[in-house]
């Protein structure tokens, strides 16, 4: 077990972080107020302790600053005026890990916030399921304060990882009732994910669960037996969620998604306006690549992808050769590129894409270096699993959807902040033999 000195983080700060995570998928104004209150309290403490040794610049300061700079510089040199509307969202995202690093959160400080995140998602999932079952016409499942079905599904996939993290963090003293309650909340989120019908989130979750089952990054009293039981438990939860989904559809007598929007329907090769199995992602990727090549350094500007038109593509993005005819039939025009990487390259150029890749690479490297730490203590394992969930869902689902923004981006960055802070070497922390 890890022995730690007393945490520098007070109960009020931890309580505000827990309130933020509980309200994040539920209520718009309260979550904004909770983030602001937490950021003010943490920022004030950082300023107060600015002379404490060990708080100097780090590589992570540069990575987080690059993410913000990429947004502020986006659109520089483009024909249309740059839009900085996304700067506030990115500032909120980078503020969390930066402040958590400076405040010195311990793994044990994250117990209550992780429980709050799990509880908030369970309430939001039940709320969304109730709306699906009572709507006059088939609707997509959405978490109330997350919105669009794809965003909600990404949030749900991350929270399933949080449920596993909380379960792994339960000590031997935890009762069977507590363990069943945690498993039930994860089961609710998994059921809601099935109802959402998001392929990107489902595939990313499959990658995440495979990694967790392979690595088992938490303490094991008897490795062979406990690892086998854990993997069987994962399979049991997946089967239970599938049975629950089929039962919900059968017993309710309702269509749980609009026609063709379920997972099975989406994975069928479609024709016509459906855009095939890729749902136009190939055309969006082609347009994002053309836009990034036209403005390779700083891109089109935030929200610039949504302002592209066939006429603008023909005039400045991919003009035809002299005497040629401009053909835009290979592109699809919509609000964003449905890809973390495509949107970053198109709107923020090579600088923005490099900043995103640096963030993901550094995140993965920190997880790799701290794996032994996670396997030595239950609280450490819970933090590590939460951070892994944020990274895998962000990176994998980001191939087909725009991740790392708004609610699911904030949830992922909170997990990163927990990892960067709790796994950092400090005086007063040592390993028991």
Quick description:
The protein is mainly α.
Describe this structure in words.
This protein is an all-alpha fold and about 425 residues long. The protein has one domain. Helices cover about 65% and strands about 0% of the residues. The protein has 16 helices and two strands. A two-stranded antiparallel ribbon has the order 1-2. Helix 4 packs parallel to helix 16 and helix 13 packs antiparallel against helix 15. The C terminus is likely disordered.
Task: Describe this protein with a few key phrases.
433 residues; mainly alpha; two-stranded antiparallel sheet
- Into which percentage range does the β-strand content fall? under 5%
What is the tally of beta strands? 2
Number of domains: 1
pLDDT below 50 for ≥5 consecutive residues: which ranges? Answer: 269-277, 427-433
From the N-terminal CA to the C-terminal CA, the straight-line distance is 9 Å
Structural class: mainly alpha
Number of helices: 16
Strand order of the largest sheet: 1-2
The SSE string, one letter per element, is EHHHHHHHHHHHHHHHHE
Mean pLDDT: 85
Shape: globular
Largest sheet: 2 strands, antiparallel
- Amount of helix: 55-70%
Q: How big is the Rg?
A: 22 Å
Topology readout:
Layout: E1 2-3, H1 11-23, H2 28-48, H3 59-73, H4 87-103, H5 111-134, H6 149-169, H7 176-196, H8 199-215, H9 223-252, H10 263-267, H11 281-294, H12 310-317, H13 340-369, H14 371-374, H15 378-397, H16 406-422, E2 430-431
Helix pairs in contact: 1-2, 1-5, 2-4, 3-4, 3-13, 4-16, 5-6, 5-7, 6-7, 6-8, 6-15, 6-16, 7-9, 8-15, 11-13, 13-15, 15-16
